[in-house]
Each structure stands twice: as C-alpha cells, then as structure tokens.
Amino acid sequence: MNKFSVLTASVLSALMLSSVSAAPVTTEGTGVGKHGDIAVAVTFDNGKITKIDVVQNKENKVLAQKVFTELKDNVIRTNSVEIDGIAGATFSSKGFLDAVKAAADKAGVKLAAKPADTKKADSAMAQNQSYDVVVIGAGGAGFAAAVEAKSKGANVVLLEKMPTVGGNSLISGAEMNVAGSWVQKNLNINDDTPERFAEDTL
Ligand SMILES: Cc1cc2nc3c(=O)[nH]c(=O)nc-3n(C[C@H](O)[C@H](O)[C@H](O)COP(=O)(O)OP(=O)(O)OC[C@H]3O[C@@H](n4cnc5c(N)ncnc54)[C@H](O)[C@@H]3O)c2cc1C
To answer: What is the distance in A from the centroid of ligand 1 to the CA of 175?
Structure first.
C-alpha cells in the first residue's frame, strides 16, 4: 500500500467513525416521582435532546400533566435539566428531570447549565381587565361560586395560582359530610338538619 492509499484509507475510516458517532442515540433513564418510578427514553443528536418519550409513570394525571408537556418541552428547548419544575407537581417534576439526567449520563451527554430564563411572558393577555365578580381560587368552593355567579348573568373571572385547577377538592376522598346522608340513614339518625350541621361545623 503506497503513502497515498494509506492516507485515503485513514481519512475514509475517520469520516466513517465521525458519521457513526454523530448518529442519534436513544437511552433510558429512571427517576423517582411522587407515586413511583418515572422512566423516560431520551434521543440525543450531537449532544442535543431531540425527543423524550415517557415510558412509565404512575403520577396523578391532572396534577402532573404539565410535567409531561410543558416541562418536557422546556427541557428539550433548553437542553438542560437545571430548570424550574411545575408548581404543585414538585416530586413528579424532580423524578422526570432526574430520569432525563440519568439517560444523558448513560449516553455520555453533558447537558447545558442553568439557562438564564425559561419563562415566557403571555403577551396575548390584556393588562387591564374588568369583571363583575372576581373569584380567587379554583377549588370546589371557587368553582361553585363562579358557576353560581355566571348563572345569574354576571361577568365572572376565576383565578388560580397553581398551574392546574382543582385545589384540595381534586385530591379529596369526595365523601360528603352532610345532614341526611346515607350514612346517617343506615345508622337510623333521622333528626339531623342543615341548620344543625352548620352549628356543628361552627
Ligand atoms: C387528601 C384529602 C382528602 C380529603 N377528603 C375529604 C373527604 O373525603 N370529604 C370531605 O368532605 N373533605 C375532604 N377533604 C377536605 C376537602 O378536600 C376540603 O375541605 C375542600 O376541598 C376545600 O375546598 P375549597 O374550595 O375551600 O379549597 P380548595 O379545593 O383547596 O381550593 C382552593 C384553591 O385556591 C387556590 N388559591 C389559594 N390561594 C390563592 C391565591 N392567592 N390566588 C389564587 N388561587 C389561590 C388554591 O391553589 C386552590 O386551588 C380532603 C382533603 C384532602 C387534602
């Protein structure tokens, strides 16, 4: 083999190697969420996350929804796991971010450090708005108040500080402690009234 063919062969093999190392790679990682393991399959292309599939999770479908949509999109956009989680889904967020980090470690990918700002301003929302009734807190009481006011013809806004609505009402056992319930009937308690219930509660 002459000098020229040796050189050509080494250039060709270097090119082949670089095209192999540049190929997208998918690895799996696991983190611990609120209700168990969260497993993700992450695809990296040249050190950048291009896709995240959530392979396994037992998180609350409503409370953790934004972890698997908004937070996932932010991780891909910033190529970082050093970003804010979703308020109200702290453990689910941490489990998800840990899972992505574990997948990156497995792939030998170094993710980006904390980005400057990951929050997007909602420019479509008018700064000054006017309503007849402003209800603060979108739990059971807030929804009931808002629906009642709306049904009476008021222009109503219902404000919630968390990224999801529902409050404690959403995670409650939904047993209704009221006068005249089936429990009281079964126990032969027939003299309770809404007024007595209100007194008891106070
Ligand atoms: C695990 C669990 C199980 C339960 N089981 C039962 C049961 O079986 N039976 C029963 O009768 N009760 C039960 N309860 C209690 C019941 O859930 C609550 O009493 C009830 O949900 C309270 O309703 P609420 O609308 O007042 O508050 P919430 O449903 O908690 O709603 C309040 C909302 O206001 C929001 N908020 C607070 N401050 C602000 C602010 N400054 N700006 C904007 N939004 C704000 C909160 O984020 C929240 O979404 C349970 C509670 C828990 C936690």
So the answer is: 13
Angle formed by the axes of helices 70-78 and 90-107, to 10°?
A: 40
Distances (CA, A) of 182 to 55, 140, 185: 43, 22, 5
CA 124 to chain centre: 23
Query: In sequence order, which residues have a C-beta less than 8 Å from that of residue 190 and are 6 or more positions away?
Result: 184
Residue ranges of E strands in the chain? 25-32, 37-45, 48-56, 133-136, 156-159
Full 3-state SS string of 109-142: CCCCCCCCCCCCCCCCCCCCCCCCEEEECCCHHH
Tell me if residue 69 falls in helix, strand or coil.
coil
Cα separation, 79 vs 114, in Å, equals 10
Distance from Cα 142 to the centre of ligand 1, integer Å: 10
The residue to which tokens 């008018």 are assigned: 126
Test site for ligand 1: of 169, 183, 200, most ligand atoms within 8 A of the Cβ: 169
pLDDT at 88: 85
Mean pLDDT of 138-153: 97
Kindly tell me if the per-residue pLDDT of 20 is higher than 50.
no
